[in-house]
Design goal:
There is one protein chain. This protein is α/β, with parallel strands linked by helices and 327 residues long. Helices cover 33% and strands 23% of the residues. The chain has nine helices and 16 strands. It has a five-stranded mixed sheet with strand order 6-3-9-16-10, covered by helices on one side. Strands 13-12-14-11-15 form a five-stranded mixed sheet, with helices on one face. Strand 12, helix 4 and strand 13 form a beta-alpha-beta unit. The longest helix has 46 residues.
Length: 327
């Protein structure tokens, strides 16, 4: 091989080596670009993908309901309490939730073809209050533990925080209750500064409702020292009978079998509407609940539920059709 030929071959080798290096560089650049594009695509997908909701119903102090778990977005969850009446109660024999509210939820969800779940929880996780303080949304509904709370009256205060579906029950009026015979001489139109009034904790008939009746009742708004809150009706009855309070101000039809109803009904100043499903402001619940509820009213299903209150739930203190059902 002569020197010219050898030089040519060496030059070819250098050119091939340089070409291979350039190809490798090009491959690495393309690979890097593809990797970046895939990473960006995955990140965008993660941002737009709907996350599953983790619901913890047992984290609030005093709550005895619920569990931690994944909940499908297609399942609508409704909190329901246990007031021990035909409206809503826990059947100790079967360990199930029963009552008028349960029947209504089942019927509406069936009509709307929605998967619904009732979850028992304490009332204060839906709406809570402290004596003399402004009421406020409960931690359960505010935190999204459930989609709505069942059978809550539409009041002025609650409407500032939550929205309501169409009413499924009549509104209650407020009224005073005293010991039978009114031995203390309580005057429902003139509350003295030394008298104390009891209220159901978180109820629609509260001290703020009473304060809106200053045109008809002397002595309101009440001083905070005059206001006592109670968790249950039994506690209210005991407080009246023991003279811890001079009178109770609660819903009509609640205590007539144990205490004496006194004075005129407070008709308009407590509720904006009847009992309904109480949901967060941004909820879409009403878009399917209201049409389905109207459908069961038109079909007669609602009337049938009302007619069966006494026969199916009458073993407890019953709120029969004329008391709670819409006309």
């Amino acid at each position: 091989m002569d020197q010219g030929t050898e030089s040519f071959i060496m030059e070819e080798k250098r050119n091939r080596s340089s070409s291979g290096f350039d190809s490798l560089k090009l491959f690495l650049v393309v690979l890097s670009l593809l990797t970046s594009i895939i990473a960006i695509t995955l990140a965008a997908s993660a941002l737009t993908r709907k996350a599953e909701t983790t619901v913890n119903l047992g984290s609030a102090p005093g709550s005895e309901s619920g569990s931690v778990g994944k909940v499908s977005p297609e399942v609508w969850k409704f909190a329901i309490g246990h007031d021990g009446t035909s409206v809503e109660y826990i059947d100790d024999t079967t360990g199930t939730l029963r009552g008028f509210h349960v029947d209504i939820v089942n019927a509406v969800c069936a009509e709307a073809k929605k998967t619904c779940r009732l979850v028992w929880d304490i009332y204060s996780n839906c709406w809570t209050s402290e004596a003399g303080q402004k009421s406020r949304g409960g931690v359960g509904l505010m935190s999204g533990w459930y989609d709505a709370c069942t059978g809550w009256f539409n009041t002025h205060e609650r409407a500032l925080t939550f929205q309501f579906t169409a009413a499924l029950r009549k509104p209650y009026n407020g009224v005073f209750y005293v010991k039978p015979g009114n031995p203390g001489g309580f005057d429902p139109t003139n509350i003295r500064a030394d008298q104390r009034i009891g209220f159901g904790d978180g109820w629609s008939q509260d001290e703020h409702c009473l304060a809106r009746n200053s045109d008809a009742i002397t002595g309101v708004p009440l001083d905070p020292s005059q206001i006592l809150h109670f968790k249950t009706l039994a506690e209210i009855v005991a407080a009246v009978k023991s003279n811890q309070i001079d009178a109770a101000f609660v819903n009509e039809n609640c205590l007539g079998d144990q205490l004496e109803q006194l004075g005129d009904l407070i008709i308009t100043n407590c509720n904006r509407g009847g009992a309904a499903m109480m949901a967060p402001k941004d909820s879409t619940l009403s878009t399917w609940w209201n049409p389905a509820f109207e459908a069961i009213r038109q079909s007669g299903v609602y009337a049938d539920i009302c007619a069966r209150i006494d026969t199916e739930h009458g073993a407890l203190r019953s709120f029969a059709g004329p008391v709670i059902c819409l006309d």
